[in-house]
Design a protein that fits this description.
Layout: H1 2-8, H2 11-27, H3 31-44, H4 50-56, H5 61-73, H6 79-96, H7 99-115, H8 119-136, H9 139-155, H10 159-175, H11 182-195, H12 199-216, H13 222-234, H14 239-255, H15 259-275, H16 279-292, H17 300-311
Helix pairs in contact: 1-2, 2-3, 3-5, 5-6, 5-7, 6-7, 7-8, 7-9, 8-9, 9-10, 9-11, 10-11, 11-12, 11-13, 12-13, 13-14, 13-15, 14-15, 15-16, 15-17, 16-17
């Protein structure tokens, strides 16, 4: 579609080709390429063609292009830009009265809030997502909203309730026949097991997620999978495997240019080294990654990294 649109100089086809290509690159974990493709969509956006775009897709591209960019810019480390884009997506979807696009944008807003450590906002968006999906009959988004609610509750300290909801939502997604996004869900389920002191069950979830990643090449969440594995193994006392997992998370994040995931992994590894009596190594690892950031300093994930750096001297 993308090449055909270029050959025929057909703007709507070029737009939709870039759009679909961008979605694929995003799920492959190729965030830089995905960003470039969605920015091309942004430049090709023409009010004269919006009715054509809307007729060809379930979501309204004018509303969801900013949402796609938001969830790409955030892992790339441009947190404030991501938040600005997701606010724009929610505003446009509400103004258009396009409920499907609004629910889509809410799902992306939740993922941004969870990645930056803001579960209260994630829970608020998840409640609206579940309510709208129930009212308008969106079973796939209802399943995702259920998982999002469970993930937010887990982060807020209600891990048992969170585990129940994530399990339920994952089952609902699988009932639709979809596999897309399940590595993210399984990683969140593993995190709930970790908080409940169930490392074995959590590691089983991650093993399943890793197998899906290898079978499908959906690598968007691969760095976070390794980081959470490190946290889980830490409960078993196997320090060598913990460190290896955090290093794997760092390597994947660096390969994907995912600075936010790199910071999360570096914070975990620096904390481990601090506890092992290696504050200099911990500081030397974390400081350059933290210092790369130019925005998003009010988010919990950056605040925690900064606080750890202060502890490390």
């Amino acid at each position: 579609m993308e090449i055909f649109g270029e050959t025929k100089n057909d703007v709507p086809l070029r737009f939709l080709g870039h759009y679909q290509h961008g979605v694929i690159r995003f799920f492959l974990g190729e965030f830089v390429a995905a960003r470039a493709l969605f920015e091309q969509c942004d430049r090709l956006d023409d009010p004269a063609h919006r009715a054509v775009y809307a007729a060809l897709t379930a979501e309204h591209p004018y509303a969801v292009i900013p949402a796609h960019l938001a969830v790409i810019l955030t892992p790339l480390g441009y947190i404030d830009q991501g938040r600005s884009r997701i606010d724009a997506a929610l505003t446009v979807a509400r103004r258009l009265g396009h409920v499907y696009s609004l629910v889509f944008a809410l799902s992306r807003a939740i993922m941004i809030e969870l990645a930056t450590g803001s579960p209260h906002d994630a829970q608020r968006h998840a409640e609206e997502m579940v309510s709208l999906s129930t009212e308008h009959g969106f079973p796939y988004f209802l399943a995702w909203g259920t998982v999002h609610r469970g993930t937010a509750l887990t982060a807020l300290g209600h891990a048992q309730e969170g585990l129940t909801l994530i399990t339920k939502g994952l089952s609902m997604v699988r009932a639709t026949g979809s596999v897309l996004g399940t590595p993210w869900m399984l990683t969140r389920l593993a995190e709930a097991h970790r908080r409940l002191g169930q490392p074995g069950e959590g590691l089983n979830c991650l093993a399943e997620a890793a197998q899906i990643i290898e079978n499908t090449d959906e690598r968007r969440d691969e760095a976070e999978l390794h980081r959470v594995r490190g946290d889980l193994v830490n409960a078993t006392g196997d320090q060598a495997t913990v460190e290896q997992s955090f290093h794997q998370a760092l390597a994947v994040a660096q390969r994907q240019s995912a600075k936010l995931f790199e910071l999360r992994a570096a914070t975990s590894l620096a904390r481990l080294w601090r506890d092992q009596g290696k504050p200099t190594e911990a500081r030397d690892l974390l400081a350059p990654i933290y210092n790369w950031f130019t925005e998003g300093f009010d988010t919990p994930v950056l605040k925690k990294a900064k606080a750890l750096l202060h502890q490390l001297g």
